[in-house]
Fold these 2 entries.
Entry 1:
Amino acid sequence: VSKNGSSVDLLHLLFGSVLSVDIPALQLIAASASVTVTALAIIYRPLVLESIDPLFLKAVGGKGGFWHVVFLILVVMNLVAGFQALGTLMSVGLMMLPAISARLWVERMGALMALAAAGALVCGYAGLLLSYHHPAGLPSGPTIILFCGIWYVFSVLFGANSGILVKLLRKKHLKV
């Protein structure tokens, strides 16, 4: 970038700028989210089967590889849409951390999806509030990811499904 004299700010590329999102970027994000929600509603069952038991899906004549490719296209489409608002690093963090955290609390796929979406929404709202009201002027994207990271650490420690505390309590009860 510096060799060609481009005016692209590398920090903006990596970390984005949530507070300076324009209307075309919002339209891109809204279109991407709409296509994703519709596509996931259509491919939900084969995608879950392909994720959990690909051999069974193949045995019943399902096209597991096709659904996997459709899901990967949706992931890439959402990452690209999120790059403008959150940047490269923050988009990946916001996509991964809520899902990983939700997995530590629930086992059912529907509950996992709902909890991950709710967790991302709460972390996004809390991160924006803190960055807006903090006297030091914290950047919004990293603050949102900070809240996602805090939720992840909390989930690792106290998650009802497979948190450290739950595992320790189960071992304690098994020894007695």
Note: The chain has seven helices and no strands.
Entry 2:
Amino acid sequence: MKAEAFSEFVQRLKELDNIAIIGHENPDPDSLGSMVALFLGLRSLGRKVIMVSDDPIPYAFDWPTLQEIQPVTEAAPATTVIVLD
């Protein structure tokens, strides 16, 4: 990705609020790590952001931030959804 395109992407992320981050089904460490990294980055920018999963998080993963992942059925509505793989 060219520097200009990346800068524009980051600027657009900074303008968003009320964001839901969703990974793929049957989450694995790669998917969960991507979700957590974007979640923490957006939160550090002051964005309102949640992580959502339709599948349970495997108990083998005991990362502190994973506790913030909400079941789809309990998540508040979001105006922007970012899907990561």
Note: Strands lie at 19-22, 49-53, 69-71, 80-83.
